[in-house]
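Supplementary notes for students who missed Thursday's class. We covered one full example, reproduced here. Read the sequence, then the structure, then the short commentary at the end.
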Amino acid sequence: MRISGQTRPYAVLGHPIGHSLSPVMHNAAFEALGMDAIYLAFDVPPERLMDTLTALKSLGFGGVNLTIPLKETAFAGLTDVDDTARRFRAVNTVRFTPDGFQGFNTDGQGILRALRESFDLQLRGCDVFILGCGGAGRAVALMCAVEGASQIRLADRTPARALRVAEEIRLLAPQISVSTSTLTDAPQACHSAQLAIQATSVGLKPGDPSLLPSSAFHRGQWAYDLIYHVAETPWMAAAAQAGAKTANGLGMLLHQGAESFTIWTEREAPIDVMRRALENALYNKE
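Structure (token representation):
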């Protein structure tokens, strides 16, 4: 990669940020398309976000991604946001314009495209179980509601969190059947669903167990884990043992990033190049 006086910078902001793989896939995309651009990562605490966005715009940045814990802060601070960001109350992509900032949320499109790619699955009419109702799980649950899932079953280690998301779904899509369960009841709820999604952080650390046993899954079921740092998570292993089809969260990371790339550059993202860059970084695949 050559840096010139005309190089256009982009970045991902988070707190912390050292774990981010966004620079890997975006810099690979810029190189593949011959673009004079670079993608960086900056650690920015929430209280400094809006000042940082102003500074980056003045320095000529083309746009930024936002990750934990900045998505909600950006939504509260921006006035021009797209419908998905407004629905999720979270912004993960900011485009700099002559008039200021535009906020977007590409997480929803990321999970939709990942499910289609991994399982050839449409959410309309699907019975979905979601374990974990924090930021990522909440966004996935709301996207399932928007896409017309027939039933959404929620579980969380903090029951009140699942209840809050269930109420949001009822307000957003009252025709959808919504239920909540504790971790004790979660295996039965999971087993009843067609699609099971793991949206907690359990599985990130070596030695983490699956929160659910293999008996919670069944043959022909789809099991998706938002964690992408390992090729097969404990959740995926438990599901596969029962005969379920599994996939990890690399697809969601890839497709939300590709959507951001297109928002900034108005060019089609080189998906295959970005995927190979991620796989090489994560799993040393050549």
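Commentary. Residues 115-248 form a domain with the Rossmann fold fold (CATH 3.40.50.720). The chain has a mean pLDDT of 95. If anything here is unclear, bring it to office hours.
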